[in-house]
Write a structure and sequence with these properties.
The complex is a heterodimer of chains A (about 325) and B (about 300). Helix content of chain A is about 70%, strand content about 5%. Chain A is built from 13 helices and four strands. Chain A has helices spanning about 1-15, 25-50, 55-75, 80-95, 105-125, 155-175, 180-190, 190-195, 200-225, 235-250, 255-270, 275-290, 310-315, and strands at about 135-140, 145, 150, 230. In chain A, the strands form two sheets. In chain A, strands 1-4 form a two-stranded antiparallel sheet. A two-stranded antiparallel ribbon of chain A has the order 2-3. In chain A, strand 2 and strand 3 form a beta hairpin. The two termini of chain A are about 35 Å apart. Chain B has about 300 residues and is mainly alpha-helical. Chain B has one domain. Chain B contains twelve helices and four strands, in the order H-H-H-H-H-E-E-E-H-H-H-H-E-H-H-H. Chain B has a two-stranded antiparallel ribbon. A two-stranded antiparallel ribbon of chain B has the order 2-3. The radius of gyration of chain B is 19 Å and the shape is globular. Chain B starts with a helix and ends in a 14-residue tail after the last helix. Classes of the chains: A mainly alpha (about 325), B mainly alpha (about 300).
Chain lengths: ~325, ~300
């Protein structure tokens, strides 16, 4: 009970924080929030299902660019585009993951890197004439929620973090569902899972699609927050950041991932003076964490199931 | 026709470089089943050490360009090889028994550490190799003017690869490396010191990568601390094309990828040059995942 009280107090204090912080730090928290949701969607693919995926920025990019293109060309309101960006990202994920889903871990890793690089090159080369090349797309409008235009960092804070709260709730439900258990089985022992009748190719593909759908929606939020997007935000190194947040925070653990986002995105902000050595410290932290604590800062809680005691059995 | 042969020789020269770097990847993968993400950065380290050596000592005037480069080449190979051994000791040995994901993350971390250390020491701007080290001779082959440097690079790569191949096939240590690649436990039972063999592999692979770095510096003339990333990834693709874990495969894959990339860039589009390599990778993994010459894998499930 004590833990729940403390968690509730922290959460309430956190949600009241925009009243006390200046806009710069609220924006930092917004940034952390976006990375956190992205990491949660990657966590579903990497942490819950065990798929080595380093191309998550590609799904993020598809969602963001879908929003940007449809909004600047056809003036469709941002809020309406949220599910649409998710769906485009999901379709994209299905198309690219379908041929490669059966590959072994290391190979899947390299192919996902290839995918994110191809997407980035396609964006820079202004594919179909839509993406604006290296300059990207600008002039994306703000989300308009029933008349309230979400413009200032404080507005975006609640927009992003409530979205995150909903995501956490949904991912937690998914994790504890039959589907989530199947994914856990695939992560632990693929061969046994297949032998027990879990169609691993199908489940892995669905995991990819759901993760991509979520990343696509975050792409929409990101596009409307920045109003300008360019291929520079969707490189392989961004994928590495999401990957590290999941692994270092605790793969498969939602609280671990959120803590990881705070540390990996928040700490460099605090240590801005050492910006030159920032990436170096990042790399060192990765090596040291893997040697010292490979399960991450907050490993996922072990799954507990009550054993059903049959009356007859209990009597004996 | 001339255009085609120009691009072909260009592709062969670059392919030789990819092959040298791919050899490092494939040897490490064969022995440790680990993709050494930091390998590309060791290649960059070789190029930068070459830069330092060439700009600090004006030996060129004293002994002449070729002996200088030969001497520096050996020094670079040695230094980068030692760096490879240190890398293995620090980042990979503690994780020998951990699962693959931890090793991958550690490899990524090592890659970031090495490339950023290079950036902190040498600066983020491009660095330029001294010009006119190699006489700019163009040979006249079949009526076409082909730069001598390309042919020399390709020959050097092939010579190094032949030396490596003979080493792996004919010597005792080479056989020990092959044995360790098949099964660590059985190799230990045969009296092979697996840790020492792994250190050997981490000396030879990066040494070849360092030599490739020197050659790239001479060929392209400019260096950037991020260049290891692109070369490393393409070399890995080359290793996969040939069959990862397979040394002749890495050689074939490297040269093949270099040629495909050069011809693709010339005839399709230069902007999509990097994407072509990834397309080739995806196609190979779908059509023939064990690579052209086949992957040397002990277990298959």
């Amino acid at each position: 009970m004590n833990r729940k009280y403390i968690t509730t107090i922290i959460v309430i204090a956190f949600f009241l924080s925009p009243l006390f912080l200046n806009s710069y730090w609220v924006d930092v928290l917004n940034n952390i929030g976006i990375y956190a949701i992205l990491a949660l969607s990657l966590n579903f693919i990497l942490g819950d299902t065990g798929l080595f995926h380093m191309g998550h920025a590609a799904f993020f990019a598809v969602g963001a660019y879908t929003t940007a293109i449809l909004n600047t060309m056809y003036h469709i309101p941002i809020i309406l585009l949220i599910p649409f960006s998710g769906i485009t990202a999901a379709i994209f994920a299905y198309l690219v993951a379908r041929p490669i889903i059966h590959l072994r871990g290391d190979y899947l890793l390299i192919v996902t890197i290839g995918i994110v690089e191809i997407v980035r090159i396609a964006l820079i080369n202004n594919i179909f004439g839509l993406t604006g090349g290296s300059n990207g797309i600008f002039g994306i409008s703000r989300p308009n929620l029933l008349g309230l235009v979400i413009r200032r960092p404080e507005h975006f804070f609640y927009y992003i973090w409530i979205f995150l709260a909903i995501s956490v709730f949904l991912f937690e439900r998914l994790r504890n569902s039959r589907f989530g258990r199947a994914l856990n089985y695939i992560k632990e022992d693929e061969v046994a899972a297949e032998g027990t009748g879990v169609n691993i190719a199908r489940y892995k593909l669905i995991a990819f699609v759901i993760g991509a759908f979520w990343a696509g929606m975050v792409g929409n939020i990101y596009a409307s927050k920045m109003t300008i997007i360019s291929p520079e935000s969707f490189t392989f190194w961004e994928s590495v950041v999401y990957f590290c947040i999941v692994i270092l925070g605790g793969s498969g653990s939602i609280s671990g991932v959120i803590l990881g986002s705070f540390l990996l995105i928040g700490l460099p902000e605090i240590f801005r003076e050492f910006s030159q050595a920032r990436m170096l410290a990042f790399g060192l932290a990765m090596i040291i964490m893997m040697i010292v604590r490979p399960q991450g800062l907050i490993p996922p809680p072990p799954r507990k199931y009550d054993v059903y005691m049959d009356k007859k059995f209990a009597e004996n | 026709m001339e255009f085609f042969f120009q691009q072909l020789t260009n592709g062969l020269a670059i392919g030789g470089i990819y092959a040298l770097i791919a050899l490092g990847y494939t040897m490490v993968y064969g022995v440790l089943k680990l993709i050494n993400f930091a390998h590309g950065d060791l290649f960059t380290l070789g190029a930068y050490i070459g830069f330092t050596l060439l700009t600090s000592f004006s030996l060129v005037g004293k002994i002449g360009p070729l002996p200088t480069l030969f001497l520096f080449g050996l020094i670079i190979m040695g230094l980068v090889g030692i760096a490879g051994i240190i890398l293995e000791r620090v980042a990979y040995r503690p994780l020998r028994s951990a699962d693959r994901l931890a090793a991958v993350v550690s490899a990524l971390g090592a890659s970031i550490v090495i490339s950023n250390s290079i950036m902190l020491i040498y600066g983020a701007r491009f660095q330029v190799y001294p010009h006119h080290l190699i006489p700019q001779i163009t040979l006249n082959i079949l009526g076409m003017k082909i730069p001598l440097l390309r042919i020399v690079m390709l020959l050097l790569s092939i010579i190094l690869m032949i030396i490596l191949y003979l080493f792996i096939q004919k010597t005792k240590i080479g056989t020990a490396i092959r044995a360790t690649a098949i099964d660590h436990g059985a190799a230990r039972l045969m009296g092979i010191d697996v840790n020492k063999i792994i250190s050997y592999v981490f000396f030879i692979g990066p040494a070849l990568g360092g030599a490739a770095g020197l050659m790239v510096g001479l060929y392209y003339g400019q260096l950037n601390f991020m260049m290891g990333w692109v070369y490393g990834l393409k070399a890995f693709i080359a290793a996969v094309i040939g069959g990862i874990g397979n040394i002749p495969g890495a050689m074939v894959g490297g040269i093949l990828l270099g040629v495909i990339e050069a011809l693709g860039a010339a005839y399709i589009s230069t902007a999509w040059k990097d994407a072509i390599a990834f397309f080739v990778l995806i196609i190979i993994l779908i059509v023939r995942p064990t690579g052209i010459l086949g992957e040397r894998v002990a277990d298959k499930i």
